[in-house]
From TrEMBL:
Enzyme class: hydrolase
Keyword Aminoacyl-tRNA synthetase: no
Subunit: Homodimer. Interacts with A1CF; form an mRNA editing complex. Interacts with RBM47; form an mRNA editing complex. Found in a complex with CELF2/CUGBP2 and A1CF. Interacts with HNRPAB. Interacts with SYNCRIP.
Name listed for the protein in its UniProt record: C->U-editing enzyme APOBEC-1
Molecular-function annotations in GO: cytidine deaminase activity; RNA binding; zinc ion binding
Organism: Theropithecus gelada
Record has Cytoplasm as a keyword: yes
GO biological process: cytidine to uridine editing; defense response to virus; innate immune response; mRNA modification; mRNA processing; positive regulation of macromolecule metabolic process; regulation of mRNA metabolic process
Amino acid sequence: MTSEKGPSTGDPTLRRRIEPWEFDIFYDPRELRKEACLLYEIKWGMSPKIWRSSGKNTTNHVEVNFIEKLTSERRFHSSISCSITWFLSWSPCWECSQAIREFLSQHPGVTLVIYVARLFWHTDQQNRQGLRDLVNSGVTIQIMRASEYYHCWRNFVNYPPGEEAHWPRYPPLWMMLYALELHCIILSLPPCLKISRRWQNHLTFFRLHLQNCHYQTIPPHILLATGLIQPSVTWR
């Protein structure tokens, strides 16, 4: 049953929520917007409470801004325990990946899960290596799916009254294509996804270029999900 209300005026996160149009332009996987947005959750130790807020690029990338803000807090020290979840409109660049790894190495009690809407300059070898280094450091990186978009809409967006269930439905194919490329990055495979943009009519084109190494290495269920291979059928 859909609520007829928007976020409660008593919601402590209300002033930290972004507007629906911001969510759409930042997190639509078809949009190649230069600026990045970060929606994040922090759960301290064993506390059931979750702190939520958001951030955007300034002179620094959002990841660096988050780290600087968090470590400047008086109560934040190297032995603190917390779990952090990021919802990023772009995956971290190689420099931000390095900053994240340094932050985590100095705070071993911190765990980080990252969901991304898009992959930032994913053909750049330094960016690819940066993401692999994060995964090898224990960071979980996944492409945002419908469930993450709905979660962000409910918890980070100042949606209008009666619009809780009317979150943007982006085509699953784009999410699957980014997930396929993320697997290529983690498995040290060549890029398989090419993205181009026609600015005059605002169209984004995705093109796959798969080699034998992709078919041989990428888990079959990932290829099946994209429709690139067909399930085998045994006749009796």
